[in-house]
């Protein structure tokens, strides 16, 4: 059972009598349906519908815990405090730093006793638990390789904050984006994208016969960009691409290249998405 300590993760506590309604009216996640042992992805959006902060959220005995990148925590706390106004909500950093993740055989037992299961990996059929503090000594590259293999993107490595919509990083499919719970910041924009079916940028897995070039390298077809590499682990990586352009290129036999090297793209099977083609676009 791999167990990895992610040192660059930090935690916030959200408590008080109004904690649930405060968060429900603010973030993308439907926390009213959150199971007691479940961690879901979520985001606080800009009014224009782009991801301002991304995180995981779960229940604890006093309210909710938000896990985010250590570099985001203070700014997220400040932004949440700004929205609090007169609500009966307490917001505070949690002293314990870092998160341990484990998966594979035995992960269920840790979830039952001490951790919460990550709904993003569950979509891919993997039981992965998250637990505050240091409880593993595996290399972080093991976790990154697992993320890459299953199309699970994170800010910083795969997209820049304020530059991506939730649909771009599959939040509409992994439990991080609700279309039923009513208004929250940026909700009108993302709901319009959903109902009009206009989401074209999506996370894909990338593979190559040799090591991929670095994060930020453009993926091109016939000299035109279709997307950008994010996380890279050897010959595999993630990218956010225009799946309509990539689909057309693949259907026409046009090579997809990253820094001149041929690459193959695939949508995560758990997403249920397919690459549209020029014929699909013409008949739409």
Written account of the structure:
- With 284 residues, this protein is α+β, with helices and mostly antiparallel strands.
- It has two domains: 3-193, Probable tRNA modification gtpase trme, domain 1 (Gyrase A, domain 2, 2-Layer Sandwich); 200-283, no CATH class.
- Helices cover 24% and strands 31% of the residues.
Keywords:
single chain, 284 residues, Gyrase A, domain 2, 2 domains, nine-stranded mixed β-sheet, seven-stranded antiparallel β-sheet, 8 helices, 24% helix
- Count the strands? 16
Give the CATH architecture of the largest domain: 2-Layer Sandwich
Q: Which overall shape is indicated by the principal axes computed on the Cα atoms?
A: globular
What share of the residues does DSSP label as strand, in percent? Answer: 25-35%
- Rounded mean pLDDT is 93
Number of continuous helical runs: 8
Structural class: alpha+beta
Number of domains: 2
- What is the CA–CA distance across the termini? 47 Å
Estimate the helix proportion, in percent: 10-25%
SSE arrangement, N to C? EEHEEEHEEHEHEHHEEEEHEEEH
Indicate the CATH topology of the largest domain.
Gyrase A, domain 2
Radius of gyration: 19 Å
**Sheet having the most strands:** 9 strands, mixed
